[in-house]
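Shipment paperwork, digital attachment
Item: protein structure file
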Amino acid sequence: MAKSMSSSLTGKLEGSVEIKASAEMFHDLLLSRPHHISKASTDKVHACDLHEGDWGNEGSIICWTFSHDGKTKTAKDLILSVDPKNNSSTYKVIEGGLLEEHKSFIVKVQATPSAKGEGCVVHWVIEYEKLNEDVAHPETYLALLLEVTKDMGTHLTQP
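Attachment content:
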């Protein structure tokens, strides 16, 4: 599920996916062990390297190498906020291909326990500002995040 709200250059995309892993398990993998996500989603995420700080801490900088639209791309992210109680975190892209088309690109994620009693719902929000009108809205990036989330959920619940 994805929805979009935007003006001419700024926008916000949101999407959610339900996985069988707990909210805590998902949040731990994303924050404390993101370098393991490439094992969960081998065709989409190739690497995650720590450039500054410590895994999962505000102010730390991590660099993702991933496939998008058939190309290998990178995104260097600054961890803006971490809320372990609510299993949420916020990232700001500070370097990489996304900034060739966007003035700003902020990604927020929150995992909440499923109302069904098992697993969780992972909700992603992308807030962005395009450099110009010719730049497409980043729906394909949201789709990539949702697909990687599904892969992470499968990886976390394998025996």
